[in-house]
Amino acid sequence: MNDTIEQLAELGPDAKILAGGQSLVAMMNFRLARPSALVDITRVAGLDYLERDVSGLRIGALTRHRTVETTKIDGFRVLSKAARWIGHYPIRCRGTFGGSLAHGDSTAEWCILAVLLDAVIVLQGPAGKREVAAEQFFHGFFMTAAEPDEMIVEVRFPKPAPHAALTEFSQRQGDFAIVAASARLDLAENEVLTSKIVLGGVAEKPKIVEIDLAGRPATEETWRAAGETAAAQVNPPSDGHGSGEYRKKLTATLVARALAEAAA
Ligand SMILES: Cc1cc2nc3c(=O)[nH]c(=O)nc-3n(C[C@H](O)[C@H](O)[C@H](O)COP(=O)(O)OP(=O)(O)OC[C@H]3O[C@@H](n4cnc5c(N)ncnc54)[C@H](O)[C@@H]3O)c2cc1C
């Protein structure tokens, strides 16, 4: 790992880390990225793990999407379920958890869930390690808090979220989501204690919906109303995949679905 940091510092800010290559190579093919050098981290030891600790979960940066999909961890089932939305099987076998966060696509399942579950991203650079809360990590379209000479080494999820779900809509299976919605609830009896909703595909980075469902009944009506509130808070862009208005409607539907799934 230290070799990687040394090489990044030596090669300068135009060098890039190559992990699964599932985003970077495509960008290089389209000439959207022209790195001066690639530092291949795929064989760096000790970065491929999912580990429960006393309170939460730690995921090594080189853990493949497929590993997350096939490792069902109590309290974190939302991760294995959400992995199925990522691309196709070969992409999930190569793409990495850290690579997805570093790429910083606002529709990426791991970016959305990192914000939803209050994850902390551990970066290592020449000055050592530092931790950045996921809510502060994403700065905009493909822009994050990571410096060019830093590498994501680990992602920490502080506590289990048994009532959490992510759902999305895309035109074809395996495509990036047009809109994705995720929700996390704490429930007592049939009432909401706390809630958090995070959206993808409606802004430059994962968007937290400003809503507090505490004290509301855990019913379809509450979920539907929350969907409408979420839709009213977004002003998504239009593009070839759908208009902003269409994305707003998707937001309402998907938020209601995510909340119902999280509560179930
Ligand atoms: C057809 C297709 C469909 C896809 N669909 C989805 C989808 O639905 N959802 C989804 O989330 N993703 C999707 N992806 C992207 C996929 O999940 C990628 O695996 C992921 O975005 C990047 O991970 P990677 O390991 O391949 O990183 P790479 O492509 O190797 O790198 C991506 C970027 O992150 C940097 N980087 C990589 N690792 C680190 C690190 N540890 N520290 C710092 N910087 C790092 C690289 O320098 C580069 O800038 C799709 C890809 C394809 C080709």
UniProtKB/TrEMBL annotation:
InterPro entries tied to this protein: CO_DH_flav_C, CO_DH_flav_C_dom_sf, Diverse_Substr_Oxidored, FAD-bd_PCMH, FAD-bd_PCMH-like_sf, FAD-bd_PCMH_sub1, FAD-bd_PCMH_sub2, Mopterin_DH_FAD-bd
Entry keyword set: FAD, Flavoprotein, Oxidoreductase
Domain called FAD-binding PCMH-type: residue spans: 1-162
UniProt keyword Flavoprotein, yes or no: yes
UniProt-recorded name of the protein: Carbon-monoxide dehydrogenase medium subunit
SUPFAM superfamilies: CO dehydrogenase flavoprotein C-terminal domain-like, FAD-binding/transporter-associated domain-like
Keyword Transmembrane helix annotated: no
EC numbers: 1.2.7.4
A GO MF term: anaerobic carbon-monoxide dehydrogenase activity
